[in-house]
Specification:
Largest sheet: 3 strands, antiparallel
Shape: globular
Number of strands: 5
Radius of gyration: 14 Å
Strand order of the largest sheet: 1-4-5
Number of domains: 1
Oligomer: single chain
Order of helices and strands: EEEEE
Number of helices: 0
Strand content: over 45%
Structural class: mainly beta
Distance between the termini: 30 Å
Helix content: under 10%
Length: about 70
C-alpha cells in the first residue's frame, strides 16, 4: 500500500449503532454496520498495490478511518 493522503481530523466518536458506506461519484456501492466503538482522529487514502489483498488483486484504491495513540 502506498499512502496518497493522510490527515488529522476533529475526533469522531464511532459507535456500533452506526454504519460505514462506500460511494463512487455519489452512488452508494456498499454499506456495512460498525461493530465496535472507537474515536476516529485521522483519515488516510491509499493506493492498493499488487498482492496487498491476495494474489488475485492487481490494483485498487482505498480509504481508512484511524484511531491513533494519544500521548499522556
Amino acid at each position: 500500500m502506498k499512502i496518497i493522503k493522510k490527515e488529522k481530523i476533529q475526533p469522531i466518536n464511532v459507535i456500533p449503532e452506526g454504519s460505514i458506506s462506500l460511494e463512487y461519484n455519489g452512488e452508494e456501492i456498499l454499506t456495512q454496520p460498525i461493530e465496535r466503538e472507537m474515536v476516529v482522529d485521522e483519515i488516510v487514502v491509499f493506493n492498493v498495490e499488487k498482492g496487498d489483498f491476495g494474489d488475485e488483486v492487481t490494483d485498487g484504491i482505498g480509504g481508512a478511518f484511524l484511531e491513533t495513540k494519544q500521548e499522556d
